[in-house]
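Sample 3 of the quickstart, ligand magnesium ion:
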Amino acid sequence: MGSSLEERARAIADQFRGRFGREPEVVVRAPGRVELIGGHTDYNEGFVMPAAIDRDVLMAGAVAEGDTVRVWSVNFGEMSEILLTDIRRVEEASWSNYIRGVLDQFHRAGRVTPPMEVAVEGNIPLGSGLSSSAALEVATACLILKLTDGDMDGREMALLCQRAENEFVGVNCGIMDQFIAVLGQAGKTMFLDCRTLDHQFANLPRGTRIVVADSKKPRTLAGSEYNVRRAQCEEAVSILRKHINGIRALRDVSVEDLERHGGKLPDVVRKRARHVVHENERVLQALRALNAGDEAEFGNLLNQSHASARDLYEISCDEMNWLQEAAVSVPGCLGSRLMGGGFGGCTVSVVRDEAVDEFRAVVSERYARKAGIEPEISVLNASDGAGQVS
Ligand code: ADP
Ligand code: MG
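Result:
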């Protein structure tokens, strides 16, 4: 926190020297991300709008002798040794499973992974929804490629890292986090079609910052409710399929389709489907608003997304609503919404530079009064995707 990328790159190189007694060959970084709009659209094969952020995982590394990869984690103060001829999941040093998963996927893809010495450090808060796990995976892939002079298409790299998390770590995540960690662009947000992986970039409103407010509320319900929402979306598709030709996912259902046939769905399922179908439409509208320079419209869409997550998808909670309401009470806040799974975690807001201090003061004070705990507020910029730092 607070130190520049250059300072952190020097610090991770120092850590490497301290542990391994020699110089690293390269230092790479991979960023975390925010989801500006597009909540729960990914598994419905729909549209999302993430941005890479200036919080990241840094890795210093060099090729070594033998058949092991030795990784020193600065955050955990732990060394983990990975035998390349027998890559297994571990219980202790479980953070290394993300790295193991990527090595395993390189092997499955028929690629070489050299023995290496690695030091890793990150300043993305762990487990608070800014996708530190994808950053760790993508940094690993980037390091392997740099140390082997290897080449890989960005899309392939993102898919490989997603498979590492799905198959090796055992987390059923979508493609967004790895995709933006690889391909993000400074100052821009990405519009991503989760079905086709077609994507394009749009400039964020000039003179604004991305502000994340962490409610500090444990997300106890998130896992089970997530599975319930996924099942409800599948139920909606299986019923609507009888009335609308050729649909495979809620992504294929238009607003008009849903108006015509929504009555055939059970009440709760209809609400879930309405959220997803309209949220997809809002992501498209958000892209158009950014391209047209219509900041007010972009902000309104974020607020509508929050209301829909609260009232139709029912994944909000008091804490998220308090943060969102406090955020939009600040005149320089363009819009604000809960981010990710829901039931706690963080909100994301887009705030004019000159209003950031006021935002911090107002949101902290109002939230603390209601929740009895201060939120953690991070002021971020949209950054580039993964690459070599030095
Ligand atoms: P999120 O991706 O939202 O931050 P996850 O639970 O998916 O939350 O991933 C967090 C996990 O990723 C951490 O518990 C840790 O195992 C691993 N991780 C992330 N960043 C680092 C890091 N800098 N060093 C070591 N492990 C990390
Ligand atoms: Mg994660």
